[in-house]
Amino acid sequence: MVEAAKMAVSDEVAIQITDMNKWYGSFHVLRDINLTVNRGERIVVCGPSGSGKSTLIRCINALEDHQQGQIFVDGTELSSDLKNIDKIRSEVGMCFQHFNLFPHLSILENCTLAPIWVRKTPKKEAEETAMHFLEKVKIPEQADKYPGQLSGGQQQRVAIARSLCMQPRIMLFDEPTSALDPEMIKEVLDTMIALAEEGMTMICVTHEMGFARQVANRVIFMDAGQIVEQNEPEEFFNNPKSERTQLFLSQILGH
Amino acid sequence: MPIDTSAAFVRTSEIPPSPPPPSETGLVKWLRENLFSSVGSAILTIVSLIAIYFILSLAIPWLFNGVWNASSLSECREAMEGKVGACFAVLTERWNQLLYGFQYPASEYWRPNLALILLFFAAAPVLFFDLPRKLLIITAVYPFVAFWLIWGGTFLGPLIAFLGLAAAYFVFERVGKQNFALGFIGAIAAAFAIWIVGGGLIPDSASDNAMLKAVPSRDLGGFMLNMMLGATCVSLSIPIGILLALGRQSHMPLVRFVCVIFIEFIRGVPLITLLFVANVMLAYFFPPESTVDLFIRVVIMITVFSAAYIAEVVRGGLAALPRGQYEAADSLGLDYPQAMRLIILPQALKISIPGIVNVAVGLFKDTTLVSVISMFDLVGMIRGPILASTEWNGVYWELLGFAAALFFVVCYGISQYSQWLERRLATDHR
Questions:
Q1: Shortest CB distance from B427 goes to which of A90, A104, A118?
Q2: Domain check: are B263 and B331 in the same one?
Q3: Would you call B430 and A96 a contact, using CB atoms and an 8 Å cutoff?
Q4: B430 contact residues in A (CB cutoff 8 A)
Q5: Which of A229, A237, B117, B143 has a CA between 20 and 30 Å from the CA of residue B176?
């Protein structure tokens, strides 16, 4: 089934990053990043902490700005022009490590807010869409509760549903399972796998190597702000080329 | 394994439940736990009881021997025949002066009364947001109706003020959606156009034989003046304070700079100073031919003062929100006004409720400071015309106690409302 999905990668370019550099003050966080993501591709980004993985995907929906180089998302260049940024952000869904649900709104309101205000969808239609996606992440019965009443895994699935309600063409995941208890990781990963099988273009920063093996077309290893190695998962795990990658893999897979 | 019969035991009958010993129930238990749990607390209890008895033994005769009907302090003393008692007659005799000041025409008292009743209807849709949103129209119209009721004169003035604001709102709704700056400037232009043209159309003699007799601002007084200042300044300073707090967080250096300077300057100056400025100096800042009403000058100063405080309270609420909330709003494609209105402010203001209420209660009580610039509010009336009169010279406890009671009722109401609001908004289930 997953194999079939892997076939679905098209030649159409979804994200193109060329010679991108970013600094925090004088600290050079991202160095000469070049990356092309095709539509339907599923990419896992891994690497030691502080290597710039999160910063990279946060640049893709302009939560962070870059100082050099170009980023094209769906053919639109990210610049400081506000109109572009809001348009891109509504096309690119994002899930955060700490879910970032809106605690003062119910689950349903969390999911319908952006469609109603950004897409100008009628309320009733937005609610139907929201219920559709809540069913997809298997928590329609929680729709009227508030985020504080849900477990971490449920909250992360709501966060995924909230992004999906905007019907995004690309999904970004920033360590979606890192803040979860072990028994809740699986429910979130299952949701992400189901999404991958539908052919969603995904970039995931994660340390779930099992997930990477099962779902990814490509695994990218970053260190010190650079892309050190990228390859297909089988090749990447069984036959890593660079020393730095070998060391990293031995540390996370060694126990 | 052999059973040792001497240690074995099988219960054949159930022990019926019996009541706990007397020392563990009812009044005895409560007294022991709460009042006499140790030697120290027993001593404190007894001392407190003696103190309470002492205070009540003085206060109760004072309250109940009170004289309610007399026309001067000496008459009061005669009526009490040497007993200790309060002279509440001053309250009944000067009741209208305490509430409305000594110059508001007695035949028109119904007008501020009606304005006060309408205030409840106007405030309800804002305070209790479960009510239908359409009721906000009452809130929008109320300030102009109340102005007309209290000051009287021609109704054309408030009508044109209202039409100006309505036009501004209409222009902003139409244009502001596409182009914020154009809508904003257009709205201001529309409002001023209507005010200037409309103001010119009102004949000078319009107020001479108007339906409601015109009452000048200097004739306002008593607790009515405190309520007017309190309600106006609180309802103006909360939105201004929120804007200042947002401005202080702005990415635009000029906006941030202006807001910081404004807040820091106003907070660093005593309110009394600002009131003297309003009384004496503010006239220099207005065109020489315009005589801006003292009431409006005082409202500006108190509003500015408490807006600076509210801005800092709201800034605390904004700072308490995790950065993830801003990022989540951004990542969904909400623009700045939407993110603020739908995500950030509802949460930040909820955190700020106790602080905002604190400022609002303080503001309301600070309205008594206008007595130092010779406005006859409740305290001004007591210190001035009433205590200075030959009849009531020396009646402090009754008058100031009455003032305290009036303020307490309003402030306690505000406090209870804020606690209800906090419970109503609690959705985080911590």
A1: A104
A2: yes
A3: no
A4: 148
A5: B143
Same domain for B59 and B206?
no
Best of B323, B326, B332, B341 to disrupt the A interface (most A CBs within 10 Å) is B332
Mark which of B190, B211, B232 sits at the end of a domain: B211
Q: How many CB pairs under 8 A join A and B?
A: 69
* B331 touches A: beta carbon within 8 Å: yes
Within 10 Å of residue A244's Cβ, how many Cβ atoms? 19
Q: Which DSSP symbol is given to A113? A: H
Report the candidate in B105, B114, B194, B104 with the shortest Cα–Cα distance to residue B148: B114
Q: Which two tokens stand for residue B63?
A: 């309250």
Query: Which tens digit of pLDDT belongs to each residue from A57-85?
Result: 999 888 888 888 888 888 888 877 767 78
**Which of A86, A106, A148 is nearest residue B333 as measured by Cβ atoms?**
A86
SS3 label, residue B341: helix
ipTM of the complex: 0.88
Nearest chain A Cα to B425, which residue? A104
| Pick among A59, A73, A102, A113 to test the B interface (most B CBs inside 10 A) | A102
- Closest-CA residue in chain A for B332? A90
B304 and B413 co-located in one domain = yes
What type of residue is B172?
A: F
Q: What is the C-alpha to C-alpha distance for residues B407 and B363, in angstroms, rounded to an integer?
A: 12
% pLDDT > 90, chain B: 38
Tens of pLDDT, residues B351-374: 999 999 999 999 999 999 999 888
Residue A255 has pLDDT above 60, yes or no: no
Structural domain containing residue B66: 39-92
Mean pLDDT of A133-151: 89
Residue given tokens 């003085």 in the structure block: B58
**Helix (H) or strand (E) segment spanning residue A234:** helix A233-238
- Domain of B321, CATH number, reads 1.10.3720.10
List the single residue in B334, B343, B347 with the smallest CB-CB distance to A118. B334
Residues B178 and B285 in one domain: no
- Residues of B with CB below 8 A from A113's CB? 332, 334, 342-343
Domains in chain B: how many in total? Answer: 4
Confirm whether B314 is domain-assigned.
yes
Q: Is the pTM of this model over 0.90?
A: no
- Asked if residue B367 and residue B298 are part of one domain, the reply reads yes
Pick from A89, A106, A160 the residue to mutate for testing the B interface (most B CBs within 10 Å): A89
User: Would residue B3 count as lying in a domain?
Assistant: no
The SS3 call for residue B201 is helix
What is the predicted pLDDT for the residue at A91?
86
Residue B345 lies in a domain: yes
Q: What is the pLDDT of residues A92-123, one digit of tens each?
A: 999 999 989 999 999 999 999 999 988 888 99
A116 in contact with chain B, both atoms CB, cutoff 8 A: no
Interface contact flag, A117 B338, Cβ < 8 Å: yes
Which residues of A are less than 8 Å from B350 in CB distance? Answer: 104
Is B407 found in the same domain as B429?
A: yes
DSSP reduced 3-state for B380: helix
In a domain, residue B422? The reply is: yes
Tell me how far apart the alpha carbons of residues A100 and B344 are, in angstroms, rounded to a whole number.
Answer: 12
- Residue B226 and residue B191 in one domain: no
Interface of A with B in 58-77 (CB under 8 A): 61, 63
Residues B308 and B263: their CA atoms lie apart, in Å, by: 5
Distance of CA B44 to the CA centre of its chain: 37
